[in-house]
Amino acid sequence: MITFTKSMLKGAVAASAMMAGTMASAETLTMSSWVPPTHFVHTDFLVPFTEKVAEATEGRVTVTILPAPLASPPQHWELARNGVADITWGNFTYEPERFVSMWFAEFPNAGTHAEAQSRALWRTYEAHLAGNAAFEGVKMLAVGMFGGGQLHHGSKTVTAPEDLANVKFRMGGPIQEKLLSSLGAVPVAAPATKAYEMLESGVIDGSLHTMESVVNFRLEDSLEHHTIFPNGFYDATFFVIMNGAKWDGLSDQDKAAIEGIIGEELSAAWGKNFDLQNPAAIEKLGAAGHEIVDASPELIAAVDTIYDTMVADWVDAAKAAGVADPQAMLRFYNDTYKSLAPQSAVPVSQ
Predict the structure, then answer these.
(1) By three-state DSSP, how is residue 274 classified?
(2) pLDDT, tens only, 220-276
(3) Number of domains in the chain
(4) Max alpha carbon distance in the chain (Å)?
(5) Per the domain annotation, does 327 fall within a domain?
(6) Is residue 93 domain-resident?
(7) C-alpha span between 263 and 34 (Å, rounded)
(8) Is 251 in a helix, a strand, or coil?
(9) Helix (H) or strand (E) holding 160
(10) pLDDT (tens digit, 9 = 90+) per residue, 6-42?
(11) Residues whose CB falls within 8 Å of the CB of residue 320, separated by 6 or more in sequence, listed in order
(12) Where residue 327 sits, what CATH number does that domain have?
């Protein structure tokens, strides 16, 4: 028979209370993701993030990636804002009217070093956009860019402006639409996840992607001609967010722990992955016999002219969307990117 002393009993009660308190404070967060579990965003970015959350909070907060997305890619901001999922990631481009303020980072010539871009975008968000009404209701965990999107065609070389006349390209947002239509091409709006079936059915002739996206969305048999713009033909902006009320409900200890692994650090991790993936994709596609060519000076000049018009039009739209000084914000991003780019990975065009 086991006899407990009074001190042993007090110790057992205290330990039980501590365990109960720990169990009560444990939090499991759900994440909805819309890429397949084999995609590098899942394996190399999202999964490590969930592991870091558990490690930083000593297991008090865990993140479970759901086995299937709860909605289409354009709906993932609302999933988190409304608390249907606790954490989501997605593309600002898919809700262009809500995120007019972000258009500046999707213009041509935004850069080809994704880590530097993503760090610069995070700093720009903190300095100029954190209080903007478009971002209310969520906790911003990270923002990111992908190192310059390029032109891809299924059957012909595209180097000069006249090569784009009446060519149907899949694209994802208003910046890409403006670029294509101004160059005489026919823009067809759809998420990147729809590109394969649209190419196979002949709905489109080509598609806008990063080089890695051609490989990771398994489009290499459908897109064999690639046109490279040295500073990017366009870009896309991404978010990782958490429901605001769910964030507020975490303990101060856990919020402080998670703050240490999000923000610029998580944004940089996003960009680093693209800086690894894009050159690897160029090597793989080149080895497979794909045609990879530089845009002609005439095509680059045509895009630069469109860029100037885009910026002028965006300034007015951004002011209407609550940005106090859009030109200053654009300068801030560009200057920050340029200061960071030499320290980043190899550009996509090399």
Answers:
(1) helix
(2) 999 999 999 999 999 999 999 999 999 999 999 999 999 999 999 999 999 999 999
(3) 1
(4) 93
(5) yes
(6) no
(7) 22
(8) coil
(9) none
(10) 443 344 334 443 444 444 468 999 999 999 999 999 9
(11) 100
(12) 3.40.190.170
CA-to-CA separations, 171 to 6, 191, 193, in angstroms, rounded? 73, 7, 11
Say if CB 233 and CB 108 are below 8 A apart. Answer: yes
What residue has token string 């800086």? 275
Using alpha carbons, list the distances in angstroms from residue 76 to 31, 166, 277: 10, 33, 24
Q: What length does the chain have? A: 350
Count of beta carbons in the 10 Å neighbourhood of residue 23: 9
Q: Looking at the domain assignment, is residue 216 inside a domain? A: yes
- Tokens 């654009």 correspond to 330
Structure tokens given for 306 = 């469109």
Beta-strand runs (E) in 196-267: 206-209, 225-228, 237-243
- The structure's pTM equals 0.87
- CA of residue 312 relative to chain centroid, distance: 25
The Cβ-side half-sphere exposure at 56, using a 13 Å CA radius, reads: 19
Quote the CA–CA distance of 199 and 207 in Å, as a whole number. 8
**Domain that includes residue 322, residue range:** 150-234+276-341
- Report yes or no on 62 lying in a domain: no
At which residue do the structure tokens 């039009």 appear?
Answer: 313
| Beta strands 291-294 and 225-228, pairing class | parallel
Residue with tokens 């200061």: 339
b/e sequence 70-98, b meaning 16+ C-beta within 10 Å: beebbbbbbbbbeebbbbbbbbbbbbbee
